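User: Predict Glycosyltransferase 2-like domain-containing protein's structure from this.
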Amino acid sequence: SVPASGDVLVFLDSHCEVNKVWLEPLLYAIAKDPKMAVCPLIDVIDYMTLEYQPSPVVRGAFNWHLQFKWDNVFSYEMDGPEGPTRPIRSPAMAGGIFAINRHYFNEIGQYDKGMNLWGGENLELSLRIWMCGGQLFILPCSRVGHIDKQRVAKQPEVTKAMIYNSLRMVHVWLDEYKEQVFLRRPGLKSVAYGNITERVELRKRLGCKSFQWYLDNIFPELETSKGS
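Assistant:
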């Protein structure tokens, strides 16, 4: 395989349909700030009828079970002259559909090669971007349709890989807050997650901030949801 050589890497799931003028907003944002990873707003393509349905403006988030979810955008983010076209600061990305400067992607460690199959890599990359000096935004002016293959995520091998991958993230990035995860899923404490030495060293080398910093500055709503 030939390594990517463009200045900007654009990741797209195979089951996507891009909308009009979807790429320019992503490239423009990265040209202004090479340490900004950007995602389009993801519209829904019905997997039975292939009907294209626009999504409201949302941001990416997750809970202490490490399940990704879409979250409402605060009204103040829509205020101002740009209104609903304004870039949205997003605590997390859905994964598989984003653009990033190639040199920056290499610098922050690409994907964790110790992860398996599918799942969990989106949250790990999101935390790494925010905690290591980057930014993650959703750009409502860029729209990409996506077929949600709901049945795939329930396959046992996918579930197993998702737990394994998520645990790698927990042990590298969550600091003392990993206890919040184990509180809800105590069985995960004894599950293997492979060798994370290289990723721990990467975090040190990049001089990344703490997960406490991430909670305080990027996603305070997660800490207030400790009961859930």
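The chain has one domain: 8-225.
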